[in-house]
Specification:
Layout (H helix, E strand, L loop, with lengths): L1 H17 L10 H4 L12 H19 L10 H10 L5 H16 L5
Length: 109
């Protein structure tokens, strides 16, 4: 099952790149150290996906650690994009697939 989530993470990365939401510059250590959910006070949601979510999920997979049992990323991604009038259908679709797959069958099962 972890191979599937790795594929979904790659699809999310590709969507971010295709829609020009992938950043070449790493945020500051302070920005990445935010204690707020989704680092909402220091990062845009696409930065959180790129610099926190994708690496953390990949690290869990590589370490053989348990993955979250449920994810609900779509609402925050949709809201963030809507608030900025950002159109990124491929990224939204990739996030929705990840959410749906975790609800349908947790990857730790």
């Amino acid at each position: 099952m972890t191979a599937k989530i790795s594929t979904y993470l790659i699809e999310l990365q590709n969507a971010l790149i295709e829609e020009q939401l992938w950043s070449c510059e790493t945020p500051t250590v302070t920005a990445l150290s935010s204690l707020e959910p989704f680092a909402i006070d220091t990062l845009e949601i696409e930065q959180w996906l790129q610099f926190i979510f994708i690496p953390k999920m990949n690290a869990l997979i590589q370490a053989g650690k348990p993955l979250p049992t449920q994810l609900h990323l779509s609402p925050i991604v949709q809201m963030s994009f809507a608030n900025r009038n950002l159109v990124a259908p491929n990224t939204l679709a990739a996030v929705a697939v990840i959410d749906r797959k975790f609800v349908e069958k947790p990857f730790n099962a």
